[in-house]
Amino acid sequence: MGLNKVKSNSNMYDWVNDSFNTIGGECPHECSYCHPAGTKVMMGDYTQKPIEKVQIGDEIIGLQKITINGKTKGYLKFLKTKVVDLSTRYARTLKFETVDGNLICTPEHPLLGSTEKRNGTDWKAAKAFSPYEHLRYVSSSVKGVSRSPILSISAHKNEIVYNLQTESENFIANGFVVHNCYVKKFRFPALRKKYSGEPRLYENELKRNLGRNKIWFVGSCFDLFADGVEDVWIAKTLEHCRSFPDNKYLFQTKNPGGMYDWIDEFPKNSIIGTTIETNRFYADYMGKAPLPQNRAFFMKKIADAGFVTMVTIEPIIAFKLDFLVDLVRQCHPQWINIGADSQKSGLPEPTGIEVEALIAELKKFTEVKIKKNLRRLML
To answer: Do 104 and 93 contact (CB within 8 A), yes or no?
Structure first.
């Protein structure tokens, strides 16, 4: 088929007029790669600075993969890179003790260390490591990257933790090579402030005149049905939408089960969407989000209740064709959006041939909309 023969778009939501966001804070369904205060980050001059004092624009040390004779040899080259974004939240942490030192991080945080492949080294979620495996370690002399055997891993405590996003996509924390967090990017400081910290209701949004004959994306920046959102906040948001009945409303969630509890409260002109990136569960990426099978089960119930439904497969992750097609079919979507990972998150991705096969199967029963960033997988 070839993606160049398929109509594509850079914005799958260009048919929406505006967004309506009553909930602020960091959505629990976002990535959660964090370290507590006191974690030492290696700066561009090879000194150490506590992570809570690192600022946007600071120069730090990261690692870069090198290629020799066309073959990638791993993260072997140091480079100076910059911090491009920051955020903070309250989370559960783990403590690693190794022969070279200690590291505290959130359970989902990818660290560079042992993999299932014999003598292999790659990114793996902190909670997936075991004692006697190793983490990749950079000594204070910065003479190279060595293996640091893990002595113990233990539950630590709930505490304030800090995220960094860097140009190199990794940094060195307490000497250990760690992945950065892809902080949701907001152009304006006010929005960055609104969507960080604990979930909270913005009452002023409930005074907003939503007009008529518009299409609103409700909760475009925060999943309205995520854990931590109080029932009264959801009720007020839905009530406000119902008070402007001449509009259409798009609600998209990774928790259709939580959404289904409110099915009788939705405006009659609602469009209900979910994200199903794969038929598999990748803990490193999906974190606290419900399983894809759970999402499909409740989307079917929502479709059976008479609502228009849609599915987004973005970022598309490695899948088994028949299983993923079956999950999407259960949702009875009127259309499907498909896009690739635009954050360079290191997710396991399907091949171009697998993506083409998926598109062909989905087009047998619904419309498929292709995002331009999918072209990267088709080369």
So the answer is: yes
